[in-house]
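Session log. Operator J.P. requested a structure for one protein chain; no other inputs attached. Running the standard single-chain path with token output.
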Amino acid sequence: MENLSTITTFLGWCTIINIGMLTYTSIMIIIFNAPVKKLHAKMVHISPDKLDELYFNFLGNYKFGIFIFNLVPYCALKIMA
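Structure written below.
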């Protein structure tokens, strides 16, 4: 049972850290939209108009990954315990 407790704690902290990173990234994209777009457009040679769609896809996929790989296993282990 100790091993399950350790894994549950680990997944809980992974979820918190990943949600924090998602929130931080979202806020930075909202606050610093123009400078970030300018920097990324120069780095990867993509038009700034296309970057909005790419940011949205990235944040959506990241959120989906958090739910699938961190939150759902955490909830399942909490139910099992």
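Operator note: The first helix runs from residue 2 to 31.
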